[in-house]
Automatic annotation (TrEMBL), chain A:
The keyword Transmembrane applies. The gene is mlaE. Keywords: Cell inner membrane, Cell membrane, Membrane, Transmembrane, Transmembrane helix, Transport. This is Intermembrane phospholipid transport system permease protein MlaE. Its main location: membrane.
UniProtKB/TrEMBL annotation, chain B:
GO terms for molecular function: ATP binding. PROSITE patterns: ABC_TRANSPORTER_1, ABC_TRANSPORTER_2. Residues 14-250 form the ABC transporter domain. The keyword Transport applies. Gene3D superfamilies: P-loop containing nucleotide triphosphate hydrolases. It comes from Spiribacter onubensis. The lineage of its organism: Bacteria, Pseudomonadati, Pseudomonadota, Gammaproteobacteria, Chromatiales. SUPFAM superfamilies: P-loop containing nucleoside triphosphate hydrolases. This is ABC transporter ATP-binding protein.
Length: 258, 274
């Protein structure tokens, strides 16, 4: 019993310590952001590897999620004779929830894990220490551009996901299920609000971008500099990002859509 | 290019006084005194695990001393602000044991990295400097190779060229000879000594390769159990009457440093197994 309490206490303290280190780390990175303004090409490079290279999985998933949503939504709506509202259902689900959340989960798997592994390996091979001794601050040169790239990419990717999802639903709805194309769009236009739905979804994805980027770069920077350490950190990035995104999404939804 | 002999600074470029440092509750240094003068090649030797690399990190300001002082070029490293520490580091070059080359950049871009980070030089001038530095370590022909395509010794030489890129005053070498074949070892020894004299550098070589290190060092310190146990010229070290230094320099398996890790007696251990 005492042993159990001790273990709970120790792991709580350890998690709090990690959270503290992560916060201080984030503050240091934010303070060093000025350098990025002077050297935007560092950011462009990371936007490519974090954002552009994630496009394929986002495009394909967006299309399929939209198509499946159309099928499922139609079968439910048709019982109530409301199948012409398919566009509204799809657009609301995607802009409010599925777009930001699924994009963030896919992003953690594709880009977050890569960021952690890259930074962790740079640490394990002393590249970060070497950079420090060359009077180049790795927090500014390596971490900051990657964090900002995640912050910018995720909302854009989420928007692309949503657009393609709606597009996929339109194709399936009109060609396969016989929903009228005109009412698909006009009902969507009438019932989806820019501020309540689109903007809130965008805010969510910006926050998810910050969280996903932060977790990924911190886990890489904080990992044990061994091969086992890097592999554990990469796994942790995907797991922790997924859980935090889902938890945060619940809180945000509760606050936004009351 | 050679270090300017400013009159304001004393001859000692690195001056460590009463340094104490511990890690994981274990004292690594306990009252270490050590001086490196301008223009010298100073060796710091000792068995693995005595914290030689830690000493370099203390000099480079990546770690802070628990007590005592680490002065580099007249400045207390532990007390510097971030900005001043980074300014001081531009006067130091470090050769890491692994080379620490950026694996996704070619040799050329590795050497150009500090120049591009710290200077506004046009690419044509950077090219000249990079080729000069690579020529100095004999690897101008390898400039388009990636670090993965280099042998360990070549990687260290490229890393040395990169450390030299900003014309530092001090170069710190972390185990430059570890795991090298005799030819690379000879090449590295020659490069370290010649660069030091030709460019007016000051070099600190941390190593446990006794013969190689002593043959190029002006002075050497032997560290064990957190203390400097012997220091002086290589001749003086070889003549030392300390049994510990004798064991270390002559690579004897048993002596003050026992061959056996401390344990209960073999007889007791065997009896217990029954």
């Amino acid at each position: 019993m005492v042993g159990l309490l001790q273990r709970i206490g120790a792991s709580t303290l350890a998690s709090l310590g990690t959270l503290g280190r992560a916060t201080l780390f984030l503050l240091r990175v934010i303070r060093g952001l000025g350098e990025l303004v002077r050297r935007p090409h560092l950011l462009v490079q990371e936007l490519y590897s974090v954002g552009v290279l994630t496009l394929v999985i986002i495009v394909v998933s967006g299309l399929f999620v939209g198509m499946v949503l159309a099928l499922q939504g139609y079968y439910t709506l048709v019982d109530f004779g409301a199948e012409q509202s398919l566009g509204v259902l799809v657009a609301l689900s995607l802009t409010r929830e599925l777009g930001p959340v699924v994009t963030a989960l896919l992003f953690a798997g594709r880009a977050g894990s890569a960021l952690t592994a890259e930074i962790g390996l740079m640490k394990a091979t002393e590249q970060l220490a070497g950079m420090e001794m060359m009077a180049v601050d790795p927090e500014r040169r390596i971490i900051a551009p990657r964090l900002v790239a995640a912050l910018i990419s995720l909302p854009l990717l989420a928007m692309i996901f949503i657009l393609l999802g709606i597009g996929g639903a339109y194709v399936v709805g009109t060609s396969l299920l016989g929903v009228d194309g005109g009412s698909f769009w006009s009902q969507m236009q009438a019932q989806v609000s820019f501020t309540d739905d689109v903007l809130n979804g965008l805010i969510k994805s910006v926050l998810f971008g910050l969280v996903a980027g932060w977790i990924a770069v911190f886990n890489g920077y904080d990992c044990l500099p061994t091969s086992a350490g890097v592999s554990r950190a990469t796994t942790r990035t995907v797991v922790v990002t997924s859980l935090v995104v889902l938890g945060l999404d619940f809180v945000l939804t509760a606050l936004m859509f009351d | 290019m050679p270090a300017t002999q400013s009159t304001g600074e004393s001859r000692a470029l690195i001056d460590i006084r009463d340094l104490s440092f511990s890690r994981g509750g274990r004292p690594l240094f306990d009252g270490v005194n050590l001086t490196v003068n301008r223009g010298e090649v100073v060796a710091i030797m000792g068995p693995s695990g005595t914290g030689k690399t830690t000493l370099l990190r203390l000099i480079g300001g990546q770690l802070r001393a628990a007590a005592g002082s680490v002065m580099v070029a007249g400045e207390e490293v532990g007390g510097l602000s971030r900005r001043d520490l980074y300014r001081l580091r531009r006067r130091m070059g470090v050769l890491f044991q692994s080379g620490a080359l950026f694996t996704d950049l070619t040799c050329y871009d590795n050497v150009a990295f500090p120049l591009r980070e710290h200077t506004e030089l046009p690419e044509s001038l950077i090219r000249m400097v990079v080729l000069m530095k690579l020529e100095a370590v004999g690897l101008r022909g390898a400039r388009d190779l990636y670090p993965a395509e280099l042998s360990g010794g070549m990687a260290r030489r490229v890393s040395l060229a990169r450390a030299l890129a900003l014309d530092p005053e001090i170069i710190l070498y972390d185990e430059p000879f570890a795991g090298q074949d005799p030819i690379s070892m000879g090449a590295l020894m020659q490069v370290i000594r010649q660069l030091n004299d030709a460019l007016g550098l000051t070099s600190v070589v941390v190593s446990h390769d006794v013969d190689e290190t002593l043959s190029i060092a002006d002075r050497a310190y032997v560290i064990s159990e957190g203390q400097v146990i012997e220091s002086g010229t290589p001749e003086r070290l070889r003549d030392s009457d300390s049994p510990w230094v004798h064991q270390f320099l002559h690579a004897l398996p048993d002596g003050p440093v026992p061959f056996h890790y401390p344990a209960e007696t073999m007889a007791d251990d065997l009896r217990r197994a029954r």
